[in-house]
Amino acid sequence: MKNKFDIALLIFCLALGINSILAQNHPKLILTQEGVRNIKSSLGKAPLFDKVLVETIVEVDAEISRGIAVPIPKDMAGGYTHERHKRNWFMMQKAGVLYQVTEEDRYAVYVRDMLLEYAEMYPNLPLHPTNRSSATGKIFWQCLNDANWLVYTSQAYDCIYTFLTKEERKQLEEDLFRPYADFLSTGNPKFFNRIHNHSTWGNAAVGMIGLVMNDEELVSRALYGLNIESNSKNERDNDGGLIRPDGMKKAGFLAQLDGSFSPDGYFTEGPYYLRYAIFPFLQFAKALANNKPELDILAYRDKILQKAVYSLLYQTDANGLFYPINDAQKGMSWNAREVVTAVDLAYLHFGKDPMLLSIAEAQGKVVLDEAGFAVAKGIAEGLTQPMQQVSIAYTDGPNGGQGGIGILRTSTTPENELCVVMKYSAQGMGHGHFDKLSYSLYDETGEIMQDYGAARWVNIDQKGGGRYLKENNTWAKQSIAHNTVVINETSHYNGDIKIGEKYHPDLFYFHGEGEVQVVSAKSQHAYPDTELHRTLVLVNDEQFSHPILIDVFKASSDTPKRFDLPVWFQGHLLQTNFEYESKLNALECLGDGHGYQHIWKEAAGNAADGNAHINWFSNQKFYSMISAVKPGDDLIFARLGANDPNFNLRHDPAFIIRKKDQKEATFVSIIEPHGAYDPVTELSEQPFTSLEEVSVLHDDKGYTVIQFSNKAGESWTLCLANNNASKEANHRLEIEEVLYSWEGPFILKKNKG
Amino acid sequence: MKNKFDIALLIFCLALGINSILAQNHPKLILTQEGVRNIKSSLGKAPLFDKVLVETIVEVDAEISRGIAVPIPKDMAGGYTHERHKRNWFMMQKAGVLYQVTEEDRYAVYVRDMLLEYAEMYPNLPLHPTNRSSATGKIFWQCLNDANWLVYTSQAYDCIYTFLTKEERKQLEEDLFRPYADFLSTGNPKFFNRIHNHSTWGNAAVGMIGLVMNDEELVSRALYGLNIESNSKNERDNDGGLIRPDGMKKAGFLAQLDGSFSPDGYFTEGPYYLRYAIFPFLQFAKALANNKPELDILAYRDKILQKAVYSLLYQTDANGLFYPINDAQKGMSWNAREVVTAVDLAYLHFGKDPMLLSIAEAQGKVVLDEAGFAVAKGIAEGLTQPMQQVSIAYTDGPNGGQGGIGILRTSTTPENELCVVMKYSAQGMGHGHFDKLSYSLYDETGEIMQDYGAARWVNIDQKGGGRYLKENNTWAKQSIAHNTVVINETSHYNGDIKIGEKYHPDLFYFHGEGEVQVVSAKSQHAYPDTELHRTLVLVNDEQFSHPILIDVFKASSDTPKRFDLPVWFQGHLLQTNFEYESKLNALECLGDGHGYQHIWKEAAGNAADGNAHINWFSNQKFYSMISAVKPGDDLIFARLGANDPNFNLRHDPAFIIRKKDQKEATFVSIIEPHGAYDPVTELSEQPFTSLEEVSVLHDDKGYTVIQFSNKAGESWTLCLANNNASKEANHRLEIEEVLYSWEGPFILKKNKG
């Protein structure tokens, strides 16, 4: 009732409207005069927009009534001054929008008065006293947050520009905005010129305030970067990442667009960071589209921003949670504020894709601009279509030549959802993990085989001030923390980012359609003189009671090695088909470095009959993995948590297959989700795997052939060509007097009874 | 659409109806002729009933189309023959109801044909071949399940009674029902005559089939038990429980009603078992109400069944999950089938309490009888009121003289929900735990301080066939598995059920109203020559930012002892205010028996300043506990999972305060839930406790006075009289020249600034 009343009142007031100031050319940055007119003329017709508008009015009014506070900067993230200035930027941006939509002067007064207080303070501000960043800010502990402030505040300034007197504008621009923009750019060239999401914020901030002020020098600086020769080619930031990647000769926003994404929109740090990074890209791009249409920025680089938005939306599980690859905190999803902006802008500017409306409905909000308005209107008109994520392979690297990630998903009903993500990407800069050819697996309940994500509790002050924890390096980045092969207890690239940035695995082939989907990739450099080759096969076929994942991991080295393949299965172990001995009274670490020092060894055994089955329970579902092993392979149950003096790590379980003292190791496993258990009815359905056995029929450099069977006595053969990805190539192979022939790099065939 | 169509069609067909058979006097057991007439005349007016009716038609029709299977009994629970016979009983009962409501002969035919198959098989059936129960059944591995079958099947027989020929009835009664009932009673006197929920099923089964057959001998046997002198007074069943408790001279259903509940409806085994046990009570009671109104069974023992139903509903957390006290599997809730029956029957017969309708709405189903119909109608008429659980103290023991449990809850908004359950009950028979004066704590998200529940995975075959695991005795029943004091690493009553059954703690006082609620109880016998006295104070007062729980636990012994008080906090430890040393490379057990052998010691420290604060994170909320400790007290972080060769245990964390080598130990802690964290916005609100410090001002046999303060500099004093629970008593105490005077056993006062 309240919503309706407020909106009705607002429409009424606007109808009376004296709207003289609209004759001038602001707002123009994100909101435009025409956009504002459209919104005002259609209030009451797009309920989701109205809802957000009313919520924003309530929020900003409450904030106005509490008064303005612009404290001298002092605190780290989480502390008072940090949080206060952060809140100020949000409130100013919102108040600016409200001033435009409602024409109520008090919103403009609020922004003006706050900006004037900043203009009072800024000229005398030293660097932030914390001095804990490689690019210390003034208002905040790092330039990144100073840039955040300006991206929002430039919008607020734009919205009240015409409300201000000329003298006020002069004071704000000379005492606050221009020196602020100079500080972020010429004052911090290393920050401003890097190809990195932090720098994108810097570019956007400087460019957006430049557009509002008609300051072409700032806009140019934002678009093309600083011409600073002092950025030497190999200079690194304090997270270990390069300031300028090899071959990148440019800086600034266009260079970010060129260098931050692969040609198909993959962001090398992964979706958690893309979600953060996309925001300044889209904000500044929108502002450029409004003010420099000659750049045609939304079509730049073959619509790279559109591709980036979709790559963000496709890198999610069934519930919209981002795959937590690299330094990602789990739980982040497409409900994030930045994705609201991305979905709305993509809807309006990239073809009104009706599937985007279903995400907007899930988000339950829209941005207060013409994009958000278009989305709310689309929803009100009943145009929504369900979002359908797809199987897709993304390339990595600015030119797409640095590996990538492959996503296979069954994309059917919720009861039949299975999605595997294989990572054969480049290092991913400072936030990258040493997890070549790793995979993570998801169903409709979430993680089945997890990626640990980051050892960090973002904005939770109790855990190292919310920053990356020591264990992020000693654990989360290490190879053993991921579902991939680790050789001789040493992480890929020896856990050295400098080596990692030189190399990347390569996609061997990707087949993302039909009932048998495959992604196959190889790494030549994760270890010296060693090839790793993993092939993941997602089968969603009526022949099987549930979708299954077949994992074939071949590792070949010149000299004998020890090979560990962990699976970080999520849930409680129920049963195995092999004997194991548990550590009863004492636990020891599994190793002493490269992450092994963080793992407790809980139990170990061997499978005499060549098949190791494990069965576990999670989220009221059952899961099984059956693996072809040799009697001499160690089967280890492990748990995270050793050498964790401050309880920074989760105590998650793992199962490790260890092959010792051999040059070649081929790991073959099949994972099947099955059945259900309800603690209220206490009924369990299909608690056991439908699979019986898996074995390796043939394995050499050229071919790997595996066979597996189910309990009904049916069996299947999977033939893989290891060196020829051609779809047209014909393969013939005789194994124990049986001829196998097929076309293309793989075939899965049911054997005749 | 489908639902509406089917119901409409059904109403139409019934309107045509030739209903000659209703002149006879069946059904009469649960359904009655009048009840069926009412239902049929009002179809289409109670949507929830219609929905369940249509679902049942779909389910039973599908089952009928698959045909009848009555296999020779062979398997344990989870195996084919067990599950098949179990499904048969449900299907027959449902088909019987459908025959009555729809008048479709095929339902009666289905029941008849299946019953005749049973009648063929039964006369020649030996005992079930598993022979693994102290009361082995014939159809199932235990008589309990045979009784379950008959409780349902007697209803099916009743529903098709008039459809059968006289000869068919004769065959069924002579070959199946009478011998079946004899087997459960005279054939298994130990099973039939025990005061135990299994026996209630036996009594109900025999009585219900007796009512249908008009077999007064069976009905009398069911009501009054067998007169078997061979049940000696101290005979025990194989779970260690007594066949007949001391002083119980009767057997049979009325004796169960007398002996199973305390006078206010508490069931000594706890709510998980009450949920199971209540079903045959209510079913047989309903049948008796329909057929032997002279017993006035629903009013028996001052309405004990009504009290039992409410005690079941009140022993739930905010989400309707039962407190997992004693051998309970977690996750069981008021959505369970048995509670649907209980809620519906209670609604119809115990005063149409509109709060019950909100539970029925949450359940989303009703039973297909006049009670379920009344509920569906009440909902359709908009009578629903929200369920409000209450603070309440339940007595234990048939006469209410064996301790009990006390529930304190804030009962306000979801954001402000806090509920503590203190257990000072009797042993609870074979399923009881050694957890005197333990508590568990809940908020709107679920468990804050957990009760472990049972070490059992019910009906999950992989875990010991779904039966109780070895660890249920070695871990789940032990005192250290609970939030209560353990002395010298020995469980209460030395972990011996025979000792436990002799004693119980006693309520000292209970105050369940207002802003300061208190439950206080004492145990004299958990340890020899030792008194344990715990007082829990739940404070929900505007003075505090959140509801808090104050825990004062006094233990006094004749000789020096070691006292451990664990809290099994649910979540991830964030921070402490004291130094601790973690075990980095190796873990050892905390002890070697009484559950300690299952605990890994992860870290230990001491608090030099007399206050130990811990802060943890769970379910997107923050929690803190501050404790008054001495510098010599050990502060131990521990984790479950040692000596667990089959991964049967959860790896849950605990914090243990250990006081060594002293005769008296007083543990004082305050627990505060506070703040929130959202992984999508990455914002944390109030991550730190609002409390500053807690200290013991005075502590002797007569009085304990504690003082605590918050970070705003305010402070409070809690005065407890330890030996006088009188509300009228006046107390005066001088501490450091300050006089404290108050009336009644406790007072919480804010100190003057």
Walk me through the structure.
Two copies of one chain form a homodimer. Chain A has 753 residues and is of the alpha+beta class. Chain A has three domains: 237 residues, Alpha/alpha barrel (Glycosyltransferase), CATH 1.50.10.100; 124 residues; 295 residues, Beta-galactosidase, Chain A, domain 5 (Distorted Sandwich). Helix content of chain A is 32%, strand content 25%. The first copy, chain A, has 18 helices and 26 strands. In chain A, strands 6, 7, 8, 9, 10, 11, 12, 13, 14, 15, 16, 17 and 18 form a 13-stranded antiparallel β-sheet that branches. In chain A, strand 24 and strand 25 form a beta hairpin. In chain A, helix 4 runs parallel beside helix 6, helix 9 packs parallel to helix 12 and helix 12 runs antiparallel to helix 13. The longest helix of chain A has 23 residues. The first copy, chain A, is elongated and about 90 Å long. The N and C termini of chain A lie far apart (68 Å). At the A-B interface, strand 11, strand 13 and strand 14 of A face strand 11, strand 13 and strand 14 of B.
Spans of chain A of at least 5 consecutive residues whose pLDDT stays below 50 are 1-5, 17-23
CATH topology of the largest domain in chain A: Beta-galactosidase, Chain A, domain 5
CATH architecture level-2 label of the largest domain in chain A? Distorted Sandwich
Radius of gyration of chain A: 28 Å
Strand content of chain A: 15-25%
N/C terminus separation of chain A: 68 Å
Q: Main sheet of chain A, how many strands, which sense, barrel?
A: 13 strands, antiparallel
Number of strands of chain A: 26
- What is the averaged pLDDT score of chain A? 93
Number of helices of chain A: 18
* Portion in helices of chain A: 25-40%
CATH class categorisation of the largest domain in chain A: Mainly Beta
